[in-house]
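ugh ok so i messed up the first submission bc i forgot one of the chains. this is the corrected input, ALL of the components this time, i swear. 1220 residues overall. if the numbers dont match what u have on ur side tell me asap before i send this to the collaborators (the ones from the other lab, u know who)
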Amino acid sequence: MNLNWLRHFPDLPATLPPETRPSDLARLELSLAFPGRDFSITLSPSLGDSFILDTIGATTILTGGETGLLYGAYALIRSHLSGSPLPAHLESAPQYPLRVINCWDNMDGSVERGYAGRSLFFEGGQFAYDPGRMRHLARLMASVGLNVLCVNNVNVHEPAQGLVAELLPELSALADLFRPFGVRLMVSVDFSMPLRDGLDTADPLSEAVQAWWQRTCARVYAEIPDLAGFLVKADSEGRPGPFAYGRSHADGANLLARALKPYDGALIWRCFVYNCRQDWRDPSTDRPKAAYETYQPLDGAFDDNVILQVKNGPYDFQVREPLSPLLLSLRHTHLALELQLAQEYTGQQIDLYAMAPMWREIFQDLPADRLQAIAAVSNLGRDENYFGHPLAAVNLYAFGLLAWSPRIDPAEVFDNWACLTYDFSAADRRTLVQLLLCSRSVYEKYTAPLGLCWMVNPGLHYGPNPSGYEYDLWGTYHRANRDAVGIDRTAEGTGYLLQYPAELQARYADPDTCPDTLKLFFHRLPYDYRMPDGRTLIQRIYDDHFAGAEEAAAMATVLKALPFPEPDAAVIADRAGRQVQNAENWRDVINTFFHRLSGIPDAQGRRIYD
Amino acid sequence: MNLNWLRHFPDLPATLPPETRPSDLARLELSLAFPGRDFSITLSPSLGDSFILDTIGATTILTGGETGLLYGAYALIRSHLSGSPLPAHLESAPQYPLRVINCWDNMDGSVERGYAGRSLFFEGGQFAYDPGRMRHLARLMASVGLNVLCVNNVNVHEPAQGLVAELLPELSALADLFRPFGVRLMVSVDFSMPLRDGLDTADPLSEAVQAWWQRTCARVYAEIPDLAGFLVKADSEGRPGPFAYGRSHADGANLLARALKPYDGALIWRCFVYNCRQDWRDPSTDRPKAAYETYQPLDGAFDDNVILQVKNGPYDFQVREPLSPLLLSLRHTHLALELQLAQEYTGQQIDLYAMAPMWREIFQDLPADRLQAIAAVSNLGRDENYFGHPLAAVNLYAFGLLAWSPRIDPAEVFDNWACLTYDFSAADRRTLVQLLLCSRSVYEKYTAPLGLCWMVNPGLHYGPNPSGYEYDLWGTYHRANRDAVGIDRTAEGTGYLLQYPAELQARYADPDTCPDTLKLFFHRLPYDYRMPDGRTLIQRIYDDHFAGAEEAAAMATVLKALPFPEPDAAVIADRAGRQVQNAENWRDVINTFFHRLSGIPDAQGRRIYD
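and heres the new structure output, hopefully the right one now
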């Protein structure tokens, strides 16, 4: 059964011929989707992922690279199944060559920050997958242009270290399943792996270590010649890294990159490095400053097959963060943007949260030529519907389309996805698209309006806990007291704002003109601060939380009335109910927290608990 | 090697003869400890645990029951090794017939709320113990008069259900090791066990269920004729119980008691029943009221071999709680007092916390004839020293002696233990005893002065988290706001106070005369409330936390200077250092929390972080 947006895609045969290439698959997909239609298909290898479509009378002319033909075929099928006319002329090329899904799957079968069941790939320390589901996943990815799958968690736990050693034959068998779809595998490796193999150091300047990584890459690429490369989390949250040897992250990344270079492998190095043993008493250390301080001095020191992967914001996938300044400041370094489809802080695939409007804002601040790759943490799991919440699929769909064309309108993407996924009337589809478009704003209102973040249950990251991280060591503080809340990150405060180019400094520096959505991210303000709309800060906190909970309830009512098919309908209704409870809980806890602190009543006399 | 207070006890032979009775062991212990000394020993079975000692010239005359002789022997040995003269005449009988250790050990080897390593009994779902350590543990218990050991967690997880079924032969083998020491085993059972065995109900009024428990007891007692009985946690924190069948806890307890009755087994039924899904918004539900409300109406409805086991306070082993009113109000029901040696909320065997002074206060409010049994949650584990912190041993030692004689002076107990455990000069011993005597007060000052409780890290229960439980479902709230803190539990508030007899109501009702240590337990008070000593409430909160941290530092200095032998010295010094850090953390977090709320500066201008 083809779930979600592949629902109406024709069934593929039970097996594909050995050595099926993406261009072969493109021909097969087109013949199944458009039986009897006349295609003129030309493979032009130099086009790579790109394709050119022309429709001349009854003939559709498709020209593209090996994978370009496949993406062209899927573009045609998506267009056809969503009822759009085939384009008369279309030239399409992806914005970024690497469009990557990062799975945080552990080999014990758990998924770090997974909200859709256990791992699709692993169980009990072993590979354990359904080949049919692998092909379905590969088709999901390819149908929206995604081309790299990193299968294991960036926190590399045993026995995942074996993925570049004794488990290579099994990894290779998995790669074979994805290859016809133009999806290359990638693996997360651990900087200290040479130690596991008996070396007494993992120092990047050690010749023995360099030789070890060269041998490892030779072995890996002998088995999987098209592996996309390695992903590394180093010196972060307890992971090993070059700091242990007094070396820089350029030393560390280049070590692996040089071993990968002969095979055209990429080394993706995550920049999620910060002091995770901070003392809350110390107001001078400001975690958002950390990545810039670590990496900016190294700009230009990385080899050309190193890609630094930077989260969209300077914290960690909060509901609202400004763009990471590192993405704007590194001028001589290849960059990947890291997004998170897994709804860690954004509702855990219980609450509805469609992300494309957030990404759109990111791309508005981020010049298109700034990135060489784009990656997103997977929201997939072994649940029958892959996503926990059936509507969470829209985030993978939209990620694929925006990774290809960052300027595409989210409304168009959602409408397109809805057409493919549900047989709705135009009116119902408009309703669904409208819900998706407003879902982020609703979630933000009842959880983290005005740039307040981290008021979540520690560890879990679902549900409100206004002081859960306040006295902890993670560097995530709001410092609310009876008079004021927020952190001053301007030049007068921690100075974080100074990491931005002048234009963004100007946007955020003055609390009166700083956008409301980030006011308390950049500024510390008293509760009686007068917002641009004339309300006080405290009244806005109350109002937004009341409004968010009301809107969540209204959304649930509308969602439940839409004619989703089963089993989606039951799951969606159940989760909508849980979202309403969650929103009420956020409203009451946060409002009570600030009312206890400020003593200021709600101007509208609504119920705030004591 | 004999650790801790058995340090100077003579070594026992590597094995004891089969069928060694406690009276045989008494003779052996005396012959080893007093070689050449003349004893006249008379077994008088009707004396049970009691004994009579007379010293006439060179002859010591010991008369006692089967176990009484052993307790008499240990009394003599303790007295001798601690340098006290043998008593000329002593008649000794325990206050309570059942003096019980409750181990919260799971068969996977973990120990719920264990701070001394993994289980002494279990690992990997199986029995896995060192017989030598079992005998050492039995001797530790018997040497201080303890006579029942419940080996498995009151939260009965698979495969522990098998302890009354397929695992009986192994349980019996364990019982054989403890029997010579007069220690009988007990097991925790799960109310729903009949379901595990294929019955379709566990309803206490079902004849099939009654027959199932009868068969089970017959099988159990055929293997272990002297089993002390069963311990049950029912309808509590998710455990199954009679409420599922619309039956009362008298129905539930009597069901098991009647099956145990033919074998003289006791059924100990825990009263730790409360709403653990409370809504913090609801100020009318007050968790401390729960046990009384559940059990008081059932007074007199329990069979005579049922013992209701009640925690000392109405919450859950907080640093300071008033006596549970249920212990005073049940007049026609057998009662056990439950204490906790495991330092869950009291420093986790990192911070020094000697409990006897707390127990002394409990016994001051609790008439001696009120209890039929006394139980304590074990602080034991597989650590080489059994207790994690070597000085935590004093809590097991003191529990034994106070379970025998509740009126004994803690200072005497500590001195006695110190004599047996360390070869200190009299001055060093006085210092150690003094540290033990003040340890509770120091811990209370930096964690939970004035009856404030639950400001701990949720789940972990170590370290400060002032709002960690504030918006949660456990019913544990302080409701601090910018003006006041605490819960009014008087007649004008939740009415909890009305569960007490008039004398205690009078003690606590007026905030001005309510003891400082419980002021915020019973009353909600503004920060500028004037305490009896003239200081404001907020100033007392600051002062106590500053003083507690200072005293913890002073204690650490003194502790580190005492001549403990290795390995104790290193462990004690390490833990003292961690205690100092913990105390500073408590001081800073709690003071900042209240300073942010109240805005009131410290009158002495000490550092409170923003």
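quick check: Chain A touches chain B through 25 residues (CB under 8 Å). that seems consistent at least. Chain A has three domains: 4-92, 98-421, 449-487+524-598.
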